[in-house]
Amino acid sequence: MIEELRAKARELLESKTVSVVIGYGQGSTPTITRPVFIRKPEDVHMLIWNKYCYNNLAYYLTKKDVLRLGKPALVVKGCDVKAVMVLVQESQVVRENVILLGVSCSGVENPPGNKCKYCDVNTPTFCDFVFGEKIESKPDAAQAIADVTELEKLTPKARWEFWLKEFDRCIRCYACRNACPLCYCDRCVADLNQPQWIETSPHLRGNFAWNIVRAMHLAGRCVQCGECERVCPMGIRLMTLNKKLANTVLQKFGYRSGYDPKAPPVMASFKPDDSNEIFR
Amino acid sequence: MSNENFEPKIIAFVCNWCTYAGADLAGTSRLQYAANVRIVRVPCSGRIDPIFILKAFERGADGVLVSGCHPGDCHYTAGNFYARRRWIVFRDLLEFVGIPPDRVQFSWISAAEGAKWADTINDITAKVRSLGPFHSYPKLRTVE
Fold first, then answer.
1. All residues at 6 or more sequence positions from A208 whose CB lies less than 8 Å from its CB, including other chains
2. CB contact under 8 A, A159 and B96
């Protein structure tokens, strides 16, 4: 499979269909990969594919320094494609301006929030080319949010204690924000200081606001690729928070992000008959 | 936790065209209602950011009310429709992190509904009074 991927990459570069192929390359140890940006056809041997290919390369589609290189081809897993779809939906990426090289993926090692166990996009759609044997997905929507339902069973006080313990560890490194393909705002609300909406020091009160606000800003957008939780140095259960809101949006509005690039974004649209049940 | 002298602080984020006018009507009609509410006027319920609610709690609010025009009557046509979706999601999030949903309430109050405004304030004040002061939030550690 990797040979076909490399061959296609070489072909795309030689024909100048793309200026850069963004994929996974060998990292500094056998269990680490790193993103590679291949611009010369003779370098395509650097592309690899294994269970350590964690990164969501859709991240680069909104980065000016990468777009400067020219039209990219992107190696994407099913979860990464969902992020691309949301970027297309939000007019951040023109679908025709990127070539998607999909790879069939049976899961990455140590997935954050158990994201791979109940994956439903093992063989990605929406791609220009797909490499690897087709894998039948075995999704289990209920199991996929088991951590959310576990928390929902607790009392409000127990939930509060749980999240305080999580957010107390936050050091405000913003790795979660920096790894997220959908956190592409030029000026993040957390960086504003006139007025300062979110306290910046790594204490509980500001941490609480930061994590809640980020969850809200990703509501209906997050595709649960898990990068945030993977890169968090403190191991905060960010996937649980994001999955909760994804489930809310699914239950209340019948919407899942990352499956239909033509659908109107759920929080940027409305139906006149949305429920009034929480309104007095 | 009951405290005989506890008077809850309720912050109400209200839209200028409907709820604020409704509150004004309650005033001109000399309706008596709980004096615990502090009103923050915004142009439209769609302007209200979830972070306003968090900031209100950070600064010592015991309860928050968010109120706007009835769906279909928004002065800016659709602001309250977007707000409605936003609050449906935010309320779920607040409940999930353990903030009692009774501390944040949402309503549609039109400019003609002075009585409804008075009732809503009385209602949320009573509910929050029975819940007690919202100590846990403002006492979260911060740099001060």
1. A163, A164, A167, B54, B97, B140
2. yes
CA distance B108 to A280: 6
Task: For residue range A265-277, list pLDDT tens digits in order.
Answer: 999 999 999 999 9
Tokens at A165, concatenated: 């313990």
pLDDT at B138 over 90: no
Length of chain B: 144
Nearest residue of B to residue A240 by CA position?
A: B96
Q: Using CA of residue A267, residue A257, residue A192, residue A168, what is the dihedral sign?
A: positive
Evaluate whether A245 touches B93 at the Cβ level (below 8 Å): yes
pLDDT digits (tens, 9 = 90+) for B62-94: 999 999 999 999 999 999 999 999 999 999 999
Choose the closest CB to B141 out of A161, A205, A209: A205
Q: Which of A40, A70, A72, A68 is closest to A58 using CA atoms?
A: A72
State the pTM of this model.
0.93
* % chain B with pLDDT above 90: 87
Per-residue pLDDT, B3: 53
Distance from CA of A188 to the nearest CA of B (A): 13
> Within chain B, how many helices (H) and strands (E) appear?
4, 4
Joined tokens for residue A28: 């500094």
Structure tokens at B118: 């008075």
State residue B144's pLDDT score: 59
Q: Write the burial class of residue B59 (CB in 10 Å: 0-12 exposed, 13-18 middle, 19+ buried).
A: exposed
Tokens coding A73: 């081809």
CA-to-CA distance for A30 and A22, rounded, in angstroms? 20
Q: Which pLDDT score, from 0 to 100, does residue B139 have?
A: 78
Residue B142 vs residues A45, A66, A176, A191: alpha-carbon distances, Å:
51, 38, 21, 17
- What's the burial of B141, exposed, middle or buried (CB within 10 Å: 0-12/13-18/19+)? middle
